[in-house]
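Anyone up for a design puzzle?
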């Protein structure tokens, strides 16, 4: 299979047309004809090699929507022509303890779609069957790509930590992850608080699902939120006064991280002990949880808010995301661009 893609050959370099040939299809592998691919901040981090694991030439893209173009001899659950999505993971071993207990996303040898292999800024991307997740009929394929990274990243903690419709949940950061968290939590039935440092986002946050808005730059406002939340989901990539957020939790509350904050998370042990509170984090979710998320999203009409660019405008799209102006996710399409 000959693939046409866009790649960088050095950190942060302009992506240019790049072609490569895939080896013969493995028994449990599928080739996906890419229709669209979201751009995530993780693509930016990998492009610049911020994490020190990027291999060049580097083809980004791990929020893929496409149709199955070819299946391996042992593939049983997918058919040619079926529309699927592919996220951060493209393979897991299937036999370690994590995989055998349903936590494929915690597999220590999992293959990552843009680590050590080429991703979805291309006409074709390859994956193993278990991570190519069928897309429900009710979801728009143009906007669905970001659900396979941003969406599952914020949905997974709701499931993992047994969030109830009666719970009060806070979301720090109203961006690519946070805007989806607000939508999911509203549909879940929770009372939702949005913490944002951007006053202009207050009304947007209410539209997206927040019942209460707190200015994250205002210590007095944060202090007034003390003992009011069962969980706070941090989607931001910023250093904050974590003691104030821990104080906003009720006893047995949880401060959960899905955003990669730059520095160590500094706090005192006593508030954790006295209130039996927790600090935690999570990566995306298993294939089963991803399917559950997609079905929930289709049932409740939940979709990312996206801006679209054609694939040949990939560098313009990357610059738009890097500028912080994206509202709220960016999707590359093989066809005509627009906004939705």
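Challenge accepted. My sequence:
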């Amino acid at each position: 299979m000959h693939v046409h893609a866009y790649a960088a050959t050095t950190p942060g370099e302009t992506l240019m047309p790049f072609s490569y040939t895939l080896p013969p299809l493995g028994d449990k592998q599928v080739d996906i004809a890419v229709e669209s691919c979201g751009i995530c901040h993780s693509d930016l981090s990998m492009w610049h090699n911020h994490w020190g694991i990027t291999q060049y030439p580097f083809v980004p893209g791990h929020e893929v929507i496409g149709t199955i173009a070819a299946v391996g001899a042992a593939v049983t659950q997918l058919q040619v022509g079926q529309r699927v999505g592919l996220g951060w993971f493209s393979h897991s071993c299937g036999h370690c303890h994590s995989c055998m207990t349903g936590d494929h996303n915690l597999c220590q040898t999992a293959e990552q779609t843009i680590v050590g292999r080429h991703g979805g800024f291309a006409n074709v991307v390859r994956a193993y069957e278990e991570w190519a997740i069928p897309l429900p009929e009710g979801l728009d394929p143009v906007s669905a790509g970001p659900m396979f990274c941003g969406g599952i990243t914020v949905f997974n903690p709701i499931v993992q930590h047994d969030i109830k419709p009666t719970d009060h949940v806070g979301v720090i950061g109203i961006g690519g992850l946070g805007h989806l968290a607000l939508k999911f939590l509203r549909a879940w039935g929770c009372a939702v608080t949005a913490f944002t440092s951007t006053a202009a986002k207050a009304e947007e946050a209410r539209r997206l699902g927040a019942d209460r808005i707190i200015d994250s730059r205002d210590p007095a406002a944060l202090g007034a939120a003390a003992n009011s939340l069962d969980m706070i989901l941090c989607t931001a990539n910023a250093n904050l006064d974590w003691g104030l957020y821990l104080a906003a939790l009720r006893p047995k509350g949880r401060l959960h991280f899905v955003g990669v904050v730059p520095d160590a998370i500094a706090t005192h042990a006593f508030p954790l002990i006295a209130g039996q509170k927790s600090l935690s984090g999570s990566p995306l979710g298993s294939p089963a949880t991803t399917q559950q998320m997609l079905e929930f999203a289709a049932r409740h009409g939940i979709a990312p808010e996206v801006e679209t660019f054609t694939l040949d405008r990939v560098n313009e799209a990357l610059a738009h995301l890097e500028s912080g102006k994206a509202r709220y996710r960016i999707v590359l399409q093989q066809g005509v661009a627009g906004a939705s």
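A detail worth pointing out: The CA atoms of residues 213 and 238 lie 18 Å apart.
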